[in-house]
Structure formats: C-alpha cells, structure tokens
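Hi R.,

As promised, here are both runs. First protein below:
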Amino acid sequence: MELMGGGKILLLGNGYSSINFEDNSYPYRQDSSILYYCGLSKAGLNLLIDADKGETILFGDDASLDHLIWMGDQEKLADMAAKAGINKVMPSLNIFDHVDSTCHYLPPYRSAHTIKLEQYLDITEIKPSVKLIMAISKQRNIKSDEEIKCMHEAASLTAAMHKEVMIHAREGMNEYELVSLASKFAWDHNMRWSFTPIMTTQGQTLHNHNYNGQLHAGDLLLFDGGIEHPSGYAGDMTRTFPVNSSFSTKQRDIYNIVVKAHDAAVEASKADVYYKDIHLMASQIIAEGLTELGLMKADPEDAVMEGAHSLFFPHGLGHLIGLDVHDMENLGEDFVGYDHTIRKSREFGLKSLRLGRPLQKGFAITIEPGIYFIPQLFEKWRAEKMHEEFINYDAVASYMDFGGIRVENDYIIGSNGAQLLGEKLAYDADSVEQARS
C-alpha cells in the first residue's frame, strides 16, 4: 500500500483448470502473488487491496453441500483469512460492487484471468499497471530470511532427488523410468515438481520433455528438475553425467569447460554486478575452452562480442527463482530481470538471457552454463557461413552426436556474494564419476 501510494489493487487467484472435462482438472497451483501477499492456496479466491482505505478484502465462497459430499469438510474461508490477517471476507459475486476500471492489476497469464478482468472491471482492453508490476517486483525480488529458509529446503530436496537419479541410472534403462524414480522421491516427501522435468540423453534439445529414449553406453544423461516446497518456493537444478561409470575424454573436456564457466560465474555474482556481464564472462570462458579444443578459433573475446559462441551456448546463464521457477516471468522480463539501466537484447543467444540487471542482496538466482551441439542450428549456420572466422565447422561436425551438457545450481546473493541454496551435490567431473561408480 505504501509503495503504491493509493488506489485499488486487484490480485486474481487461480481456479481449477480442466484437462478434458470440467471435473477432471490439472493439479491445482495458486497464483504466486496471491501466495506472497496472503498465503492462501485455495481455488476461486480474489484479493482486493485498497490503498486509499488501508483495507484488504478477500473474495471467495465456502464449500456448498454438494462440494462437501464429494470433497469432505472444508475449512471456512473466514477462518483461513484470519490466519492471513484478513478480517474482511465477502462472497465472490460481491467483487463487482468494489472494483472498477481504475483498479491496478497484473498481466493475465491465463485466458480465465483475461475474462475475469473484462467482466469485473467492465473493460475491453487489458492494460496492466506498470506501477503495480514495479512495486511487486521490488518486494518479491528481495528474499526474506523466511523465504530463504523455504528455498534452502526446496533446493536440498531437489539435490537429494538428483542424487537418487545419479546413483541409480543404468545402461538399458528408459528415460521415463528415471522420471518415475524422481517423481517417487518427490511424492515420498509429499512434494511435487516445480516445473516439468527434463530427463534426456538428447541434451542438445534444451527443453526436451520426451522421455521415450533409452540409456546406452557412451551417452550423457541430462536431468533438469526441481522440487516445489509446500510454501510454493521452487528448487531448480541440472546435472549431466555419463551413462558409463566415467566420462570419455571428449566428454570430460567439454564438461570441464562448463564447470569452469559455472564456478567463475558463482565467484563473480555479487551485489551491484550486472548479471549480463557475468553471462558474457562465462560465455568467454566457454569460447576460450572451445578454442583450446580447436572447435573455435581467433580471439575468444571478439567471438563473444560477435555472438559466435551462441552456436554452442544459445541460452542465458540463469534466471531469478522464487515462488515461480522463473520468478515473476508473468510480470514481464523487462520489469523483473531488467531495469531502467539496461534493456534486454534482441540478438540470438542474448535474447534468451532472462536476467541482465545488477544483482542485489536478497536476489535468488540460478547459474546454469552449458555447451550443446545442435545439428539443426549447426547446419543452418554452416550453410549461411555464419561466423566462419570464429568457428571451425569441420571440427565441430564430428561432435554432432555428442548431445549437450548443462550444470545448474541455485544461489542467494548475500553480503559476501553468491551462497549456495540447499545441500551441495557433486558436479565436478571426479565427484560425478565417484557417485556414478
């Protein structure tokens, strides 16, 4: 209320989302800003914060008898609201008497939200409040001690889940069996995924959600997955390891470059440092390593300035993390991951950098460099003779069956730089091989 200085703030909660008929819905997940400001994970809620009157109203309905028959006893909404410090509760339909087109609201990310806004506010054009976006971003970006505790727990469980996969994966297994193993670990702890996991021997496909592959000797398995804490805070971690008990020489060479870039980025991640600069530094380390292997040539610094490294590293170094695994991405990266001092690039590679602004104490981030050999991208660039002065296409051609490598951990920016969230899980080559053995 103080940040906004006045006006009415409307935060829309999530309802159930149907899969193929109304009563068969996807697992329920509350809107993250509702979770942040009132902590209530119940479908059908909306929150009105009146900064002029200094009051908060929760709109929702208690369960009907029909619902109680199917779902059992439900806590009264007024009792739930009281736990959140909200003493004014009204039926859902009463919202029409309390909101209008002057309300501040966030960008809708579900069609149901768009329809609600049009109906509640009697508008035909959606114009989210930049002032509200900036106020929420300012608060949610800085993690409190209570939030950090939840994130430590989420990251520790995520690390333990990854360890289960790392020690149990074997030649001949199917990717879906490992997804099942990881899912069982989450359910055994009454948790769920913080996002749809990636479990693949085809790591060159950045968001590969096909689990039909089989693990063969000589493959690398890339597992990118996280556990969501009951509070809603996310863990997000990636490990890449050999299906064999050890890396081949070729795999270890590439893997060590990724680890070097990761560790340098961790060391550089401090308050007031632009994350874009850290991304470019990690990119240069990748270019230097690939130059030493003969896959790139000429000056690595020039190669990064021209974007030639993005053939191998086409995504950003990391992103903000919190109640959303890509925290507040629904509010717009330009307002959350960037600020008035820096704008997002539209260049290939850099356009996928979700975070570029200066880091601040209390920011929670991922650091996840990678190297990938993507046949489709390689063929396009080679045909167009892209960056021939920096890329040794003949040498790279022999890596087209390599796959991809990514290493990712979660960090909180503290007084002394980046501090690991959760328990440490092996990621240097020797420790990974020890775990695999």
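And here is the second one, sequence first, then its structure tokens:
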Amino acid sequence: MTKRRDLIGRITHAAAAAGIDWKLAREGGAHSIYSLDGMRVSIRRHNEINEQTARGIYRQCAAKLGEGWWM
C-alpha cells in the first residue's frame, strides 16, 4: 500500500523539478482531481492507495513527466 500523501508528494516534487504546473483542481465525491499541466489526474481520498492503482496514476503522469519518472 502507498500512502496518499507520499504519492501526491512524489508527483509534486517531480512536477516542480520538470517545471510543470501541478495543482488541485477540485474535490470530487470520493476523489481529488488534480491538474498536471492541463491533464486531469484523479486520486482517491483514502489514506492508503493500492500499489496497482498507484502505478496506474504514475503511468498516467508519465505522459507529462516522462516515461519511468517514478523509478
């Protein structure tokens, strides 16, 4: 399991290093919707996120941050 705050922090640091805009767009019913340089990223509001789900979010962000940025 991945901590939600760790996942968001990792994306935040990678986006800042790449000079890409990363911000909270809005709060949904069960998800927080973030904007990564105009691309919508949805993250569930649970303290812990399943590893497969976290990898899926990382892969989605790879479109803007580059392939394998999370490794």
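A quick note on the second one: The chain has one domain: 2-65. Let me know what you think.

Best,
J.
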